[in-house]
Amino acid sequence: MRSEVRKSMPLLSISVVMQLTDLTARQIRYYEEQGFITPARTAGNQRKFSLNDVDILFDIKDLVDDQMNMASVRKIFAMRAQQKQEEQDNEALRRMMREEHLRAQRLKTTSIRQGDLSRFY
């Protein structure tokens, strides 16, 4: 099982998360209301948190402890999300270019993009 899948599995109850993070139940529910975390719910409507949720709560707690207000915390999380999206987009572009290059090598031709980009080299 991949590490990211394991980290996203909802396993922890709110009482365990409270002990791990040293946050109150009210604080955890507030961060959920603010959209920072989205814990899974059991059939009995109990919250179940993943390790990713706990990491986010630790990040928020650290920022708040450093005297950041919630508006600043939101901005920081938005910038992180944008940066992560840009990294994913760049990785997808690199993967596409690599696959196209390998395909062109197999066919013993140049790729269309390689021809377009060659004028810049």
Automatic annotation (TrEMBL):
It comes from the Bacteria. InterPro entries: DNA-bd_dom_put_sf (IPR009061), MerR-type_HTH_dom (IPR000551), MerR_fam (IPR047057). Keywords: DNA-binding, Repressor, Transcription, Transcription regulation. SMART domains: HTH_MERR. The keyword DNA-binding applies. One of its GO terms (molecular function) is DNA-binding transcription factor activity. Residues 11-79 form the HTH merR-type domain. This is HTH-type transcriptional regulator GlnR. The lineage of its organism: Bacteria, Bacillati, Bacillota, Bacilli, Bacillales. The gene is glnR.
